[in-house]
Design goal:
single chain, mainly beta, 7-stranded mixed sheet, 4-stranded antiparallel sheet, 11 strands, globular
Amino acid sequence: VQLVESGGGLVQAGGSLRLSCAASGRTFSIDAMGWYRQAPGKQRELVAAITTGGGSTNYRDSVKGRFTISRDNAKNTMYLQMNSLKPEDSAVYYCNAYSSVLGGYDYWGQGTQVTVSS
């Protein structure tokens, strides 16, 4: 599975961005996808996740009500709509895909930078 993110950039606080993650390859093996982020000097953290089957979602508390994760299975693409952005949202955002085949495996994209200015 290959993952390619796009949509990052520089935005002022209160603004919006939409990230996209296009998956290719053995996409039929993906059980769930998610967005992680990592700021300088901090650990990578889960932002939001969505199952590819039923579409169940979960969010970290700090982004609830501001971010929305969605997916278009026909296009093998996942999105993260980010509204009301805050400077603390600044980080490199990574697309993740999880497959339970062969005991479980995580796939990662290359990351896209999101910078929110105050």
